[in-house]
Write a structure and sequence with these properties.
Two copies of one chain form a homodimer. The first copy, chain A, contains 15 helices and 19 strands. In chain A, strand 15 (314-325) and strand 16 (328-339) form a beta hairpin. The first copy, chain A, is of the alpha/beta class and 411 residues long. In chain A, helix 4 (70-80) crosses helix 5 and helix 14 packs across helix 15 (385-393). The longest helix of chain A is centred in the C-terminal third of the chain and has 18 residues, at 351-368. In chain A, the strands form four sheets. An eight-stranded mixed β-sheet of chain A has the order 10-11-12-7-15-16-18-19. The first copy, chain A, has two domains: 5-151 and 350-393, Rossmann fold (3-Layer(aba) Sandwich); 155-348 and 399-409, Dihydrodipicolinate Reductase, domain 2 (2-Layer Sandwich). Chain A binds chain B through residues 187-188, 267-268, 271-272, 274-277, 279, 283-287, 289, 291, 293, 295-301, and chain B through 187-188, 267-268, 271-272, 274-277, 279, 283-287, 289, 291, 293, 295-301. Chains A, B: This is Saccharopine dehydrogenase. Chains A, B: Pfam families: Sacchrp_dh_C, Sacchrp_dh_NADP. Chains A, B: It comes from Corticimicrobacter populi. Chains A, B: InterPro entries: NAD(P)-bd_dom_sf (IPR036291), Sacchrp_dh-like_C (IPR032095), Sacchrp_dh_NADP-bd (IPR005097).
């Protein structure tokens, strides 16, 4: 049993995570929130109290922290007595937070893969470039590290593992489809940090096809599906974290990721990208100033958190799995539908933050209660899927399975 | 008679102006070129010598100058003995260069209206906000100042005055149409300094309609014409310098400016503008850096000068004039066609710089020879048009007039 949680990161996902931890503080114990900007931690804590979200009276405290500083992070883990660290900070801090957990024995959970600021779309598998280099260290220290337990990566990995184990004898393909059919009503905005958002699409799209890594250009390959609730949706082959562990951990020849984009988004993205405005490499102005164009684009776009109050509509994220069972061809779609306005009403964030933040808190509960406290580094598909899925069914993220004309809650 | 020319500005137009001055240095005398960046002056001078463009042996010298510094500009005018100053520098330096001319007695010529860096599309008439405030000073000092003598503004003003004087009893409308039917082969680029180029389109489009100033949004109003040589072209109602003097100096109820844009240009412009990336107002990055987005866009776009070698195709700029003559309705189109590759072969710049730079040198010749040395501040429509038009016919910028099916050289 582990108790006391340190949440690192106070953006849109951090907002969801802290609210959900507060709703389960009878199990999780003290809740601490740390960010470079302590004001953002305080605002989240205020919103928790405003919604009376604490299940039982307890500790909920803000901290200023530069999570790139391993010693400072270790000191905060020790001073707070946190046995579980939920890292929902910037993707650049994963490795330093992980190191602090290894050196203090705290369990480590994150929702996205590590990135180095100066590298985009490295050679696959991405986890081998960073996190997996600490596998042996976790094993030796008996440290639990659950990588990528947001929705995608995360829940979609659990769906993939479940399909292989329970629904198929042999799986030919897993197509992870992520559609935001909602609208924020602004000319253009990204749903999370633009710097991280755009980095997903400016490089090559690596996917796993016929048991090999294949590169495509972004927006080169598309598909259209009739999805539950959100209907006909066009999505594009995209590189994404989960392919880099699923391809190594599951015996499936084709694992692809598809993200939905509207024509307007693609047009704006294409213009910015072709002009070089999404580049992470600095340029020099006439004034002599050295400026990273992508950081300027970030500065002029709406703050993603500011979109939540007006966000309407639903998201649909799931795994379309094809293969054979008992000699018959089979196809299932395992998925979740989330509603932006419902998420905002409950925790003050839109559904994209909600779907990323709820799973990592469910995972923290499973670690706290021992079921996922595996004392080594794992990706989600290596853990039992149904405990996570059942727990989330009661936490606002129900999973469903559609097969032919049948569509039911997965429990 | 005036002699010795100081050219201020060493961009694409400066390149044309210096070449053309050199081709006429028997009349103009010594040629001096000044810029903040003296290297650019030297490169232009090297290209003049490379093309053996000096008509007679003579002085052709580079100078470093901050033209915002009135005292430094006066000192350079005096030390060079320049009696004619051709200002083709940044639009922000007009007022300081003009002041230096007033205080030294040198004739002043420019090709575009003054702008203050922090103001976009001020209330009309624009000249009254800046240059015209120095009219009395020019009159008192007997200083010749010819404002806006590029192609547009400039030659199109001469066409307008000529039409009113020689072709019509009464003019209903003058539509100035500017089409670049050429191609630079790049994804996106502006044909001159992006900072100045975009500023023309980010504000309101002020035009003179029914003897009043009317505001439209950019790209709100379009027309399509079948133009000589370049054929069917769509142009958009745009605010432009010349409307602000022609409306005051000619008795014409409708004076409008139309600029041609391709759909791709409009799309890129619209995306950048809607996102706020064309703003001259600074934003703050996460790093704390203060950055002007428009300057970043300038930094990532191709240097306009770099487009010239590959530029193909032609420009068409002219005045479509409608009215009555001897009781009959009449319509004439007075225009020039220029070729990008021809301009590059002659002076190393594309046709957009060429059409701006040749007229100001023709004007300098008319000032040097006395015909335009009026010892006061004027816009081009206040001067005799035919001497300019005839001179340019022999300088690479022939003017033509089309009426019905007839189309002839204007001389």
């Amino acid at each position: 049993m582990k108790r006391n949680v340190l949440v690192i990161g106070a953006g849109g996902v951090g907002q969801v995570v802290v609210h959900k931890c507060a709703q389960h503080n009878d199990v999780l114990g003290d809740i601490h929130v740390a960010s470079r900007n302590v004001r953002k931690c305080r605002e989240i804590i205020d919103s928790v109290h405003h919604k009376h979200a604490m299940k039982v009276p307890g500790v909920l405290e803000p901290h200023a922290l530069d999570a790139m500083d391993v010693d400072a992070t270790k000191a905060l883990i020790r001073s707070t007595g946190a046995q579980i660290v939920i890292n929902v900070g910037h993707a650049f801090v994963n490795m330093s937070v992980l190191q602090a957990c290894i050196e203090t024995g705290a369990a480590y959970l994150d929702t996205a893969i590590h990135e180095d600021a100066d590298k985009i779309c490295e050679a696959p598998p991405w986890y081998a470039n960073h996190e997996w280099k600490r596998r042996d260290a976790c094993e030796q220290q008996g440290v639990t590290a659950v990588l990528g337990i947001g929705f995608d990566p995360g829940v979609v990995n659990a769906y993939a593992a479940l399909a292989c184990q329970a629904y198929f004898d042999e799986v030919d393909s897993i197509d992870i489809i992520d559609v935001n059919a909602g609208s924020h009503g602004r000319y253009f905005a990204t749903n999370f940090n633009p710097e991280i958002n755009f980095r997903e699409f400016t490089g090559r799209a690596w996917t796993w096809q016929d048991r090999q890594w294949v590169q495509n250009a972004m927006f080169e390959v598309q598909r259209t599906d009739d999805l539950p609730v959100v209907g006909q949706q066009t999505t594009y082959l995209t590189g994404h974290d989960e392919l880099h562990s699923l391809s190594q951990n599951l015996d499936v020849p084709n694992i692809r990721f598809w993200m939905g984009f509207g024509e307007h988004y693609i047009n704006v993205f294409t213009v910015l990208n072709n002009l070089g405005l999404l580049s992470e490499k600095p340029v020099w102005l006439d004034s002599g100033q050295e400026v990273v164009p992508l950081q300027v684009v970030k500065a002029i776009l709406p703050d993603p958190a500011s979109l939540a109050p007006a966000y309407q509509g639903k998201t649909c994220i799931g795994d379309l799995v094809r293969g054979r069972k008992d000699g018959q061809a089979r196809e299932v779609f395992i998925y979740n539908i989330s509603d932006h306005a419902d998420a905002y009403a409950e925790v003050g964030s839109q559904a994209i933050s909600y779907t990323a933040g709820v799973p990592v808190v469910a995972a923290a509960l499973l670690v706290a209660q021992g079921e996922w406290d595996v004392r080594r580094m794992v990706n989600v598909e290596e853990l039992p899927a149904m405990p996570l899925i059942r727990l989330m069914n009661g936490m606002g993220l129900p999973s469903r399975i559609r097969e032919g004309s049948a569509d039911r809650l997965l429990d």
